Structure formats: C-alpha cells, structure tokens
Amino acid sequence: MKTQNLFKSKLPFALIFVFAFFLFNSCKQQATVDAIDEEQKAKEELMIELCYTCINIWVSGNMSLVDEVYSPEIVRHVAGYEDVVGIEAYKEEMKSLHTIFPDMSYSIDEIFVKDDKVYYKYIFSGTNTGPYGDLPPTGKKVKVVVMEIDRIIDGKIVEEWIFYNQLEVMTQLGFTLTPPEDPGK
Questions:
Q1: What DSSP string runs through 46-74?
Q2: Which residue did the predictor score with more confidence, 54 or 167?
Q3: Residue 118 near residue 149 (C-beta atoms within 8 A)
C-alpha cells in the first residue's frame, strides 16, 4: 500500500519531468532549424548580391571587379553562340558587348536562389552603335527579356547560362529574316 501511494505521489512529477524534457529538446531542435534557416538566408542574400554586382560590372564595364566576382575558370553559355571559357575571354566578351551597346542597362524583374544557382529574369536595353559580329551598327535601340542562371561556388560565379530571343533583337535592330529559296524551283 505504501509503495502505491509513493508511486502515485511521484507520478505527476515524473510526467512533468518527461514533458519538460521533450519541450526542451523540441525548443533546442527548433533553435537549430532557425539557425540553419538564418545561415541559408544569409548565404542566399550574398549570392543575390553577387549577381547584382555582376550586373553592375556589365553596365559600368569596370574590369577591376571581374576577378573578385568571377572564377578564373568561368564558363558563359549563351544560346546560339560558342561558350566563352576563362576569365580573360570573359573580359573580352564584356568589352565587346560595351562596343556593341555602350549605353546598355539591365533591370532585374525576378531573382531567386536554389542550391548553388541564382535564377533571374531581367530586361536588357541598349543602343547598337558598334558592329554586332559581322553586322554593321544600326543606331537602333533594343529591349529584350533575358533569363540567366548563375552557378556560384565559394563566393564566385563559375558558370552562366543566358537565354533570350535573338530574333527579337535582330528585328529591333532592323534586320529581317529571309526564308530560303524553294529548292524545287
């Protein structure tokens, strides 16, 4: 009988202890999750800031910042063109684009981070006052939506994928698309 009374009197304390133990561990786990979330958020913010810096480099043509933002092994993929590989080739690409569109500007519409990549959509605009490959300058303005994906490793952009409607750019520059002659004629 005495054992039963002792058990009954200790039971509420045991339940309180178990409840407190689980509550403490739950709070501790939540604090860990919160810390990881904050760390991930800070990493994502740095990645996004890096992409804004990238855009500023393109607009300004400030080559002194290129080595800080891009990996020496940078690879730039632009749909329809040969890949640009390496930091020196990348700098030449920037200089060339500044010759083609010296007043270029970018306006970012959307941007988000997933894993080691930043995905963003922006509006590119500029006036064509320099030769565009083999094509002569037209003096015309272009405005086109661009989708870009940047892969970032150790705080530097190592790879870029650029997608835009090239026909739209050519049309805005005044060029036309001529269908091929019918070979049956």
A1: HHHHHHHHHHHHHHH--GGGHHHHEEEEE
A2: 167
A3: yes
Dihedral in degrees, nearest 10, Cα atoms 62, 60, 51, 160: -80
Q: How many CA atoms lie within 13 A of 37 on its CB side?
A: 6
Q: Does pTM top 0.85 for this prediction?
A: no
What is the rounded distance in angstroms from the CA atom of residue 178 to the CA atom of residue 176? Answer: 6
Residues 114-136 have pLDDT tens digits of 999 999 999 999 999 999 889 99
Q: Which two tokens stand for residue 167?
A: 């026909």
Beta strands in the chain (DSSP E): 70-78, 84-85, 105-114, 117-127, 141-153, 156-164
The distance between the two most distant Cα atoms of the chain, rounded to a whole number of Å, is 112
* CA atoms within a 13 Å half-sphere pointing along the CA-CB vector of 154: 7
- Tens digit of each residue's pLDDT (9 = 90 or more) over 164-180: 999 999 999 999 988 88
Q: How confident is the model at residue 144 (pLDDT cuts 50, 70, 90)?
A: very high
Go through the domains of the chain in sequence order and give each one's CATH number.
28-172 (3.10.450.50)
Compute the distance between CA of residue 124 and CA of residue 133 in angstroms, rounded to an integer. 18
